[in-house]
Design goal:
The complex is a heterodimer of chains A (about 200) and B (about 90). Chain A has about 200 residues and is mainly α. Chain A has 9 helices and no strands. The longest helix of chain A has 29 residues, at about 170-200. Chain B is mainly α and about 90 residues long. Chain B has 4 helices and no strands. The chains are: A mainly alpha (about 200), B mainly alpha (about 90). The structure holds zinc ion. Zinc ion binds next to helix 1 and helix 3 of chain B.
């Protein structure tokens, strides 16, 4: 593995296309953490995340010959993962009676919230139990918003690469990000207020 | 630079990816506009909160199973290939 360190993705892809399974294994080692994180955060459960992860790499393995290198390998792999995750989420939504509707906040509410401009108690969440709270808030977002937020803000990809992965344009990425952030803010603020009125810290 | 334009460049600004000039313009605006300052601060906090996720790594058992699944794929792909008696052929399964 250490030997593959200096090798570019594209070279490994080239070897893997010729049937070098170890080259594909190296690509997998490079990306398994990122792909797992994306899968885990886009889906709600560990089982779904593992399914998405496995399906993504299986598809990448089978379709590698169709990868023409017009985008980066990582862009291609992320795109496969997002699409599989979206499909899984949609199927799930069709097959289950919706337990709790995702909290869709109206634009007007968001706008009012922003314009109110009182200092936010968000920092109170920092360092608190908030892992669960963060999960809940992001699960309340529409899948498309989840994907864009994770790719751009958590993984730190560029706006351009995020756009390429999601096959949308840069302004669409920006507007989805804006909505994702504001919806998260509304949810987190709601939680912070709840905690305050309940008068407990955790 | 007005409030609306701040929103347009906010994502890049939060990641420190705007050019120096735009960055200075935004800073200047924020100095004078409380509303935007509060908004930008809370957006930065939200991103900071979620960036903890960046440290997550794949659980060992999931990684092992992934490797097995792909190894199986490779075997299947190998079996589909026309047999050109190759010395490096792996032992048959089982
Ligand atoms: Zn302003």
């Amino acid at each position: 593995m250490a030997k593959s360190k200096g090798i570019k993705d594209e070279q490994l892809v080239g070897f893997a296309k010729k049937g070098d399974t170890r080259a594909f294994g190296n690509l997998m080692l490079r990306y398994q953490n990122k792909i797992y994180r994306l899968a885990r955060r886009m889906t709600d459960t560990d089982e779904d995340a593992e399914d998405v992860l496995q399906d993504a790499f299986i598809k990448a393995f089978r379709k590698l010959s169709t990868f023409k290198g017009r985008s980066k390998f990582s862009t291609w792999l992320y795109r496969i993962t997002v699409n599989i995750a979206l499909m899984k989420l949609r199927r799930r939504r069709l097959s289950t009676v919706s337990l709790s509707e995702p909290v869709e906040t109206e634009d007007s509410t968001i706008q009012r919230d922003i314009e109110n401009g009182s200092p936010d108690p968000l920092e109170k969440l920092l360092g608190m139990e908030s892992a669960e709270v963060l999960d809940k808030a992001i699960n309340g977002l529409r899948e498309n918003y989840r994907a864009v937020f994770i790719l751009r803000h958590v993984e730190g990809l560029s706006t351009r690469e995020t756009a390429d992965i999601l096959e949308i344009d840069v302004p669409a990425v920006k507007s989805r990000l804006h909505r994702a952030r504001t919806q998260l803010k509304v949810q987190l603020l709601g939680h912070a207020k709840n905690q305050k009125t309940k008068g407990k810290v955790v | 630079m007005n409030c609306r334009r701040i929103l347009g460049s906010l994502t890049d600004y939060l990641h420190g990816e705007t050019g120096v000039k735009v960055c200075e313009e935004i800073d200047r605006h924020l100095d004078g506009c409380k509303k935007c300052r509060i908004h930008v601060d809370s957006m930065r906090q939200i991103i900071t909160l979620y960036q903890r996720w960046r440290d997550d790594t794949i659980p060992k058992d999931i990684s092992i199973r992934l490797k097995q699944v792909i190894a199986e794929e490779a075997r299947k792909a190998d079996a589909r290939k026309p047999r050109k008696a190759s010395k490096t052929r792996k032992r048959p399964k089982r």
